[in-house]
């Protein structure tokens, strides 16, 4: 398998002053960060050291165009022995690789939160605290929960509350009511009310829900989304199905609702069709008297798995690399699975999204791929 090279990619990102976006709040949402056994082996340098830098480096220029880049950490950082499915525990260096790439917020409530029990939850929290990264979804005690539920994403006079929930923990027991945020309408209503009391402009719920490997949301997802919207949650970001599901942006003169049912996989060892990649989502907010969602879009990303130097390696690649190679006549360098994933994802979302288009990052601008201009309502 030929390794796709990134030389063309980095010519696309020449940074300009962030003063262009000082008046807006930009957030990128990132899907499932998995840690299967082959990924752990690939990152191993020696018996005690791991390095994930190259896994995420191709996305670093993109993440750094946002104020916040928020990812679903779907492993524990519970220490050795490091294991993949079904009881995930990844090296702490996985968090380092994400942070180095520009991820500065994590959500940790998912069905693998309790894979290593209460001690694993505690150690994951301790590791993330030591790295000074914002995170929410799992907590050591009620005091810790009160301080990070919600996490506030703020810039200038704009503030968004971020809440995180999961449908369950694969049957692993957790200490109620604070160690893992479970989907419970009474608890969600209480958390949303508290967020409003904090005076935030809007509320984001990053939620682990749905049916694995299904490309469309189920009735439970749709009903819960409508219920949350009635409670005042206007931004809902989904994970868990490990495949991409549609995005719906309902907007009118006075308000909006945004639901992304599933981001799919960001990085994993899943190689079957539809599961070997995902999307990242771009949301940009501006405020006059009230906060408004002024841009929304997505970008497909694909996980390259290649073999060299007697070991496998993984890299998350943006669709811009695919487009650049194709435009330059270098299609022979494109992995056929990359082509299939891009074609599947674009066709599916073009047919099933509502008011949400693909984004191209050009310098510090987020542009509509189809219209080659900023995506404005």
Quickly describe the structure.
The protein has helices at 7-10, 37-43, 53-56, 60-63, 93-101, 117-130, 142-148, 185-197, 219-231, 319-327, 336-352; strands at residues 24-33, 44-46, 49-50, 68-73, 105-107, 134-136, 151-155, 158-166, 202-208, 235-239, 244-251, 256-263, 265-267, 277-287, 291-308, 311-318, 357-362, 365-368. It is an alpha/beta fold. A hairpin with a 2-residue loop joins strand 15 and strand 16.
Structural class by SSE content? alpha/beta
Percent of residues in beta strands:
25-35%
Q: How many domains?
A: 1
CATH architecture annotation: 4-Layer Sandwich
List segments where confidence is low: pLDDT < 50 over at least 5 consecutive residues: 1-20, 372-377
Mean pLDDT: 92
CATH top-level class: Alpha Beta
Annotated CATH topology = Purple Acid Phosphatase, chain A, domain 2
Helical percentage: 25-40%
Total strand segments: 18
Largest sheet: 10 strands, mixed
Q: Element order, helices and strands?
A: HEHEEHHEHEHEHEEHEHEEEEEEEHHEE
Query: In CATH, what is the homologous superfamily?
Result: Metallo-dependent phosphatases
Overall geometric form: globular
Alpha-carbon distance between the two ends: 42 Å
Tell me the number of helical segments per DSSP (H or I, 4 or more residues long): 11
CA-atom Rg in angstroms: 20 Å
Task: Please provide a written account of the structure.
InterPro entries: Capsule_synth_CapA, CW_Biosynth-Accessory, Metallo-depent_PP-like. Pfam families: PGA_cap. This is CapA family protein. It comes from Tenuifilum thalassicum. The chain has 11 helices and 18 strands. The chain is of the alpha/beta class and 377 residues long. It has a single domain, classed as Purple Acid Phosphatase, chain A, domain 2. The strands form 3 sheets. Strands 1, 4, 5, 6, 13, 14, 15, 16, 17 and 18 form a 10-stranded mixed β-sheet that branches. It has a 6-stranded mixed β-sheet with strand order 7-8-9-10-12-11. The chain starts with 6 loop residues before the first helix and ends in a 9-residue tail after the last strand. The N terminus and C terminus are likely disordered.
């Amino acid at each position: 398998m030929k390794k796709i090279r990134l030389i063309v990619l980095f010519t696309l990102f020449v940074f300009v002053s962030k003063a262009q976006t000082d008046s807006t709040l930009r957030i990128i949402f990132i899907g499932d960060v998995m840690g299967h056994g082959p990924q752990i082996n690939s990152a191993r340098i020696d018996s005690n050291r791991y390095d994930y830098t190259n896994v995420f480096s191709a996305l670093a220029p993109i993440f750094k165009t946002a104020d916040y880049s928020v990812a679903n950490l779907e492993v524990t950082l519970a220490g050795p022995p490091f294991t993949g499915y079904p009881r995930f525990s990844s090296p702490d260096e996985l968090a380092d690789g994400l942070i180095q790439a520009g991820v500065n917020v994590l959500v940790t409530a998912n069905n693998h939160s309790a894979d290593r029990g209460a001690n694993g939850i505690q150690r994951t929290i301790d590791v993330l605290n030591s790295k000074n990264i914002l995170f929410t979804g799992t907590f050591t005690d009620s005091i810790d929960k009160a301080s990070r539920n919600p996490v506030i994403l703020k810039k200038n006079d704009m503030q968004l509350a971020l809440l995180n929930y999961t449908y369950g923990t694969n049957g692993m027991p957790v200490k109620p009511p604070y160690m893992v945020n479970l989907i419970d309408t009474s608890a969600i209503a209480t958390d949303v009310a508290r967020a409003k009391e904090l005076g935030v402009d809007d509320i984001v719920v990053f939620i682990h829900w749905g049916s694995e490997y299904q490309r469309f949301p189920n009735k439970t997802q749709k009903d819960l989304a409508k219920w949350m919207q009635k409670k005042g949650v206007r931004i809902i970001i989904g994970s868990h199905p490990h495949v991409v599901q549609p995005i719906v942006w309902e907007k009118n003169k006075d308000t909006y609702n945004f639901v992304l049912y599933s981001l799919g996989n960001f990085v994993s060892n899943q190689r079957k069709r539809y599961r070997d990649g995902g999307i990242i989502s771009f949301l940009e907010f501006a405020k006059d008297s009230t906060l408004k969602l002024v841009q929304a879009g997505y970008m497909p990303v694909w996980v390259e798995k290649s073999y060299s130097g007697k070991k496998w390696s993984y890299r998350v690649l943006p669709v811009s690399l695919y487009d650049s190679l194709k435009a330059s006549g270098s299609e022979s360098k494109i992995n056929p699975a990359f082509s299939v994933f891009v074609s599947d994802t674009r066709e599916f979302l073009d047919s099933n999204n509502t008011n949400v288009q693909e984004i191209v990052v050009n310098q510090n601008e987020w542009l509509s791929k189809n219209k080659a201009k900023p995506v404005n309502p």
